[in-house]
Amino acid sequence: MKLSIRPANSADLAAMMALERHAATAAHWTVEQYEVVFRASSLDRLAMLIEEESQVQGFVIARVVGEEWEIENMAIAGPARRRGLGTRLFGELLDLARAKGVRAVFLEVRESNRAARALYEKWAFLESGKRKRYYKDPEEDAVLYRLDFA
Question: pTM score, two decimals?
Answer without folding.
Answer: 0.88
